[in-house]
Design a protein that fits this description.
- The chain is elongated.
- About 40% of the residues are buried.
- About 50% of the residues lie in helices and about 20% in strands.
- It has helices at about 1-20, 30-55, 70-85, 100-110, 125-135, 160-180, 200-215, 230-245, 255-265, 285-295, 315-330, and strands spanning about 60-65, 90-95, 115-120, 140-145, 155, 185-195, 215-225, 250, 280-285, 305-310, 335, 340-345.
- A six-stranded parallel sheet has the order 2-1-3-4-5-11, sandwiched between helices. Strands 7-6-8-9-10-12 form a six-stranded mixed sheet, sandwiched between helices.
- α4 (about 100-110) runs parallel beside α5 (about 125-135) and α6 (about 160-180) runs parallel beside α7.
- The chain is α/β, with parallel strands linked by helices.
- It is built from eleven helices and twelve strands.
Length: about 350
């Protein structure tokens, strides 16, 4: 009897011990190797998820240039507006190199950016790259220069022919006020535009055509330059050497180039010393050009007025940021055409200056 009781107790002890050892909460045992593999897989998954979240909230601004005060102001304002919508922005500068920009577009897709905001060096030259990006699931908003509707998710820009004509009209507002009785061919002008294909050339051609339609203007020269403040300053020195004694008006198709022209005109030793009968008229606006317009009223500066695409800088960049996000979300329109407004010393506050 005692022996039977002892065997029964031993059996119960063995059953209890087997239940308490070597089991999991779901009653399935795991080896140490299986536990390590599961832990490593979880860590890798978390790492990949963290990377995906970061990339999905970053917009690549792939741009032709980041040189100069004008573009820096513009890009910082776009970044501020995108941040309000929950996105970061990285500026990727091609420095006017088409081959490099194509590579940058492809890299932006490979790295997994949420989308691309593109200011093309050459809109025709990047068309295949933008098409590849879209086919790979990376939306592209073309800005200012249009690679073609079939090659982008959406486009935001101006009617370039209209804008080119509008800056000439703004110039003539000042000319007619300053010289109300000007005879035909008595106002000497130089027309300067960007030299890249697409929108810059379209704008330049319209500027030249409309300028030549005004009998008061004598267009001494029409020049296409690299859209760069530094290049415009250097090129202006040569242009002024040739025309300064007779020149009253420069009509410029780029806000960045206009700042370079201003530097050359106002440099010590410049052939233009008296600003009273001289003016530069341009497209687009930033703090520096706005201050120049304000001072030109007293003939202490040379930028007289500007044609501004999209209106106030902050409002325009807020619209642009929203359109980038719409491309990412798939809720975008195909084309966003912006209006052009005239900025003068009297209404700079309307543009935020």
């Amino acid at each position: 009897m005692k022996k039977s009781i002892f065997l029964l107790l031993a059996l119960v002890f063995m059953m209890v011990f087997s239940v308490g050892c070597g089991t999991t909460s779901n009653n399935e045992s795991e080896s140490p190797d299986e536990e390590n593999n599961a832990s490593e897989a979880m860590e890798e998954s978390v790492k990949e998820e963290a990377e995906d979240v970061g990339l999905s909230k970053t917009v690549a601004l792939v741009t032709m240039t980041a040189e100069g005060d004008f573009w820096n102001t513009y890009y910082n304002t776009i970044a501020d507006q995108l941040s309000k919508l929950g996105y970061d922005m990285e500026v990727i500068n091609a420095d006017m190199d088409l081959t490099l920009q194509i590579e940058q577009i492809d890299n932006a897709v490979t790295k997994g950016y949420a989308g691309i905001l593109l200011i093309a060096v050459d809109p025709n030259g990047v068309a295949d790259a933008t098409k590849r990006a879209i086919d790979a699931g990376c939306p592209v908003l073309g800005f200012i220069k249009n690679p073609g509707e079939e090659n982008i998710t959406a486009f935001r820009g101006a009617d370039e022919a209209y804008v080119g004509g509008r800056v000439v009209e703004i110039t003539m507002d000042w000319v007619n006020e300053h010289w109300p009785d000007a005879e035909d061919g008595s106002i000497n002008a130089v027309v300067i535009g960007g030299n890249s294909a697409g929108s810059e050339t379209e704008r330049f051609d319209a500027m030249v055509e409309v300028a030549n339609s005004y009998p008061q203007l004598n267009v001494l020269d029409s020049l296409q330059w690299e859209t760069s403040q530094a290049y415009a300053m250097q090129a202006s020195e040569n242009m002024l050497t040739q025309y300064a004694e007779d020149l009253q008006v420069i009509i410029c198709g780029s806000g960045e180039m206009a700042l370079g022209i201003r530097e050359a005109v106002m440099a010590p030793g410049s052939l233009i010393q008296d600003y009273k009968d001289f003016g530069v008229f341009t497209i687009d606006l930033n703090a520096q050009s706005a201050e120049a317009i304000r001072n030109a009223v007293n003939d202490t500066d040379v930028i007289r007025s500007a044609c501004v695409n999209g209106g106030k800088l902050v409002d325009s960049c807020a619209e642009l940021a929203a359109q980038v996000v719409a491309c990412i979300d798939g809720t975008n329109e195909k084309v966003y055409i912006v209006e052009a407004y005239q900025a003068t010393a009297d209404n700079l506050e309307e543009f935020g200056y």
